[in-house]
Write a structure and sequence with these properties.
The complex is a heterodimer of chains A (about 220) and B (about 250).
Chain A lengths: L1 H34 L5 H13 L2 H12 L4 H10 L7 H25 L3 H9 L4 H29 L3 H7 L9 H10 L3 H25 L9
Helix pairs in contact in A: 1-5, 1-7, 2-5, 3-5, 3-8, 5-7, 5-8, 6-7, 7-10, 9-10
Chain B lengths: L2 E11 L2 E11 L3 E5 L6 H9 L6 E6 L2 E5 L4 E2 L2 H4 L2 E3 L11 H5 L20 H9 L15 H13 L6 E4 L7 H18 L3 E5 L2 H7 L2 E6 L2 E4 L30
The chains are: A mainly alpha (about 220), B alpha/beta (about 250).
C-alpha cells in the first residue's frame, strides 16, 4: 500500500517541520504582541491573522510570487545559492507554515495575556534575568494554551491543500501530500486508495484534536 | 539618610490623569506611606522597586543611589536587590512553597530552570522553619492559607538578604485577628534583621503598629511628612517652596 504510506510520511514530515517553525515564530510574535504596546499593534495582529481567513489559493499565489524563480526571494536564492524552492517538499513546508501560523500566534498571544504581569515583575524584583523570567514564569504558565495551538497548527498543516498545490505541485513521492493524493486518487477513479487515504487522514486529525482538547486552557487547574 | 525618594510621573487611570509629585526623605527604619486608595501609593512603591519608570526622580536607600534621572543613573529591578512583597503576594502558582522561596537562590537567578521540588538550601530551610512552613513546603500557593501565603512571600523576599523591604498593603487580604498577629511578627522580624522597611497602607492600625515615621500621601502629593533635617531646603530640585510640609504623624505642623 505504498500509495498511502509515501504521502502519509511526506505529510507528517511537512506538518512536523511547519509546526516546529511555528513554535518559534508563533511563540515569539505572540509574546511580543501580548507584552509590548506599540502603535499599529492591532493592524499587525490583523495582518498576521490573515492567513487564517484568506483562501489558501490566494496565499499560494502570494508565495508563488515571492519564492518563484522570478520572485524577489526565489530569484535571490537561485542566484546566490542555486536553490530552486518551487515544486519541492520544502516549498510545501513554507506553505503549511504560513497557513497554520495564526493558530499558534493567536493561541500564544491569548495564553501570554492570561499570565499576570505582576508575577513577571515579582521575578524581576527577585533578581532574575529577563530571559529567565520568560522561561521560568511566563512560559510555564502559558504553555498549555500554546501547546493546544501547536496541535491545532499540526492538524491544519496536515490537511493543507490549496497553497501547497500552488507552490509545491503534486509530484508523486516528492510533493504529493495526503490531501493532494486523495484528490488525485478520486480524479483517477482509484476508490480503494482514496478510501484508505481518507480513513488515515481522518484518524490522524481526530487524534490530534482529542489531544488538543485535553490541553485547552479551560482544563487548567485552579490557581491561587 | 535611609530613604530619599523624589518622584514625578503623570499617572493615567481610565480617562482621568493626575501628576504624582512626591518628595520625602527620612531616617526612619520603618517608614509607612499612608493614604487613601488612588493616592498613588502602589505606583510609588513600584517606582522605588524599578518596576514602573517615573518621568523623573531620584531614589536612594541608605546612601545607595538606585535612580537619578538627572545623572542618568537607572538601575533595573534586578540590580536594586530590594525585597518586594506584593499586595496579593504574587506567588508563582506553578511552584511549591519551597520552590517559591528558593526561586532566586541559585547563581543569583541566572539559570533558566526553576529550582527542583526538593531543592536543598540551608537559607531556604531556615526561613521555612522560622515561619513554620515545614508542613506546607511541598504545597502550591492555592493549597495554603492566606497567612501562610504572606509568610511565603516574605520568606521569598528576604532569603536573598535584600537591601530593603518594600511591602504593598501586606495585611489587606487577611482577616482581623490574623492581621494583628502578623503585624507583631513583622515588627519583630524587622527589629531582628535591622533592614530598612517601606510599607504602604490605607489602614490606621498598620501605622500605629509599624511606623517609626509616616508620610501622608494624597492625590499624588505628600501632605505631611517629616522634614529632611540633614538637608538644606535649597537643595530640593525645585527650590525650597516645594519642600515637604514639616510634620510628624500624631502632632500638628509647628
Amino acid at each position: 500500500m505504498d500509495a498511502a504510506w509515501v504521502p502519509l510520511a511526506l505529510t507528517l514530515k511537512v506538518a512536523g517541520w511547519a509546526t516546529f517553525f511555528n513554535l518559534f515564530l508563533g511563540l515569539g510574535t505572540g509574546y511580543a504582541l501580548a507584552r509590548w504596546h506599540f502603535p499599529g499593534r492591532d493592524v499587525l495582529d490583523a495582518v498576521l491573522t490573515l492567513p487564517m481567513v484568506m483562501p489558501p489559493t490566494v496565499l499560494g499565489y502570494y508565495l508563488l510570487v515571492l519564492i518563484g524563480s522570478q520572485g524577489p526571494i526565489g530569484a535571490w536564492l537561485l542566484q546566490h545559492f542555486g536553490i530552486r524552492l518551487i515544486f519541492t517538499w520544502q516549498a510545501a513546508v513554507i506553505a503549511a507554515t504560513v497557513v497554520s501560523f495564526p493558530l499558534v500566534f493567536k493561541a500564544a498571544r491569548a495564553a501570554f495575556e492570561t499570565v499576570d504581569t505582576q508575577l513577571e515583575d515579582a521575578a524581576r524584583s527577585l533578581g532574575v534575568s529577563e530571559w529567565a523570567v520568560f522561561f521560568r514564569v511566563s512560559l510555564p504558565l502559558a504553555w498549555r494554551g500554546i501547546l493546544a495551538g501547536l496541535l491545532l497548527c499540526f492538524a491544519r498543516a496536515l490537511g493543507e491543500f490549496g497553497a501547497t498545490l500552488m507552490v509545491a505541485g503534486s509530484i508523486a513521492g516528492q510533493t504529493q501530500t495526503l490531501s493532494i493524493a486523495v484528490y488525485e486518487a478520486v480524479q483517477a477513479g482509484q476508490d480503494h486508495t482514496a478510501n484508505f487515504l481518507v480513513a488515515v487522514t481522518s484518524i490522524v486529525c481526530l487524534v490530534v484534536l482529542l489531544s488538543a482538547g485535553r490541553l485547552l486552557p479551560g482544563r487548567v487547574a485552579p490557581r491561587a | 539618610m535611609i530613604w530619599e525618594v523624589v518622584l514625578k510621573k503623570l499617572l493615567r487611570q481610565g480617562d482621568s490623569s493626575f501628576e504624582l509629585d512626591l518628595r520625602c526623605g527620612s531616617d526612619a527604619q520603618r517608614l509607612v506611606l499612608f493614604g487613601p486608595s488612588g493616592a498613588g501609593k502602589t505606583q510609588t512603591l513600584k517606582m522605588v522597586a524599578g518596576i514602573v519608570q517615573p518621568d523623573s526622580g531620584r531614589v536612594a536607600i541608605a546612601g545607595r543611589v538606585l535612580l537619578d534621572s538627572a545623572r542618568g543613573i537607572h538601575l533595573s529591578p534586578q540590580q536594586r536587590s530590594l525585597a518586594y512583597v506584593f499586595q496579593d503576594y504574587a506567588l508563582f502558582p506553578h511552584l511549591t512553597v519551597r520552590q517559591n522561596i528558593a526561586f532566586a537562590r541559585q547563581a543569583r537567578g541566572r539559570t533558566w530552570l526553576n529550582p527542583a521540588h526538593d531543592v536543598a538550601d540551608d537559607a531556604v530551610d531556615r526561613w521555612i522553619a522560622a515561619f513554620g512552613l515545614q508542613s506546607v513546603a511541598g504545597h502550591q500557593p492555592h493549597q495554603i492559607s492566606g497567612g501562610q501565603r504572606q509568610r511565603t512571600a516574605l520568606a521569598r523576599a528576604l532569603v536573598n538578604k535584600p537591601a530593603a523591604l518594600l511591602l504593598d498593603e501586606p495585611f489587606a487580604a487577611l482577616d482581623k485577628p490574623l492581621r494583628q498577629r502578623l503585624r507583631d511578627e513583622l515588627r519583630d522580624l524587622q527589629a531582628q534583621l535591622q533592614i530598612p522597611m517601606l510599607l504602604i497602607t490605607h489602614d490606621d492600625d498598620d501605622v500605629r503598629a509599624l511606623a517609626d515615621e509616616v508620610v501622608h500621601l494624597h492625590a499624588g502629593r505628600v501632605v505631611a511628612a517629616k522634614e529632611m533635617a540633614s538637608r538644606p531646603l535649597s537643595s530640593w530640585p525645585d527650590g525650597p517652596e516645594k519642600a515637604p510640609v514639616r510634620s510628624v504623624h500624631g502632632s500638628p505642623a509647628p
